[in-house]
Amino acid sequence: MGEAFHTDELELKDMFNETKLPPIHLEEKFQIVDDLYKTAKLRKMVPHKWVLAGISFLVIVLLAGAVSYLPVSAEQLQRIPFIGKLFSGNIFSIAGDSGINIGQNAGLSTEVPLIASDQGVTIKLQDALFDGARLSISYEINSVKPDNLMFINLTNITVAVNGVQLKAATFGTKPRQINANQTIGILTVDIDQMEWIEKFILELNINEIRAADLGETSKITGKWSFKLPIENHALENSKYKKLVEGPSAKSENGEFQLTDYLITPITTKLGYRFEGNTEWLRFQVKDGKGMIIDWLDSRGSDTTANGVIGTSRYVPLPEGTKEIFVTPYHLLPDRRSDELKKVKVNLTDNYPITLSQGNVGEIRVNKVEFQTEKTLIYYEVIGKNPHVQSASLWMETSDGQMVISGPGNRKRISDSTYSYVLEYPALNPNESYVLGTMIQTDLKLLEELTLKLIVE
Question: Is there a single domain that holds both residue 267 and residue 252?
Answer without folding.
Answer: yes
